Amino acid sequence: MTTSDALTIINKEIQSIEYPHNQSGLYDPVAYLLTLKGKKIRPALTLLACNLYRDEVKDAIHAALAWEIFHNFTLMHDDVMDKADLRRGQATVHKKWDENVAILSGDAMLIFSYMFMAKSSPRNLKILLDLFSNTAAQICEGQQLDMDFEKRTTISEKEYIDMIQLKTAVMMGACLKSGAIIGGASESDQKYLYEFGVLLGIAFQIKDDWLDVYGNSEIFGKKTGGDILCNKKTFLLVNALETAKKEDKEALLYWMDNHTQPDEKISAVRGIYDKLFIEEKIRTALQNYYHQAINILQKVSVDPQKKKELESIAENMIDREY
Question: Taking the complete model, does pTM exceed 0.85, yes or no?
Answer without folding.
Answer: yes
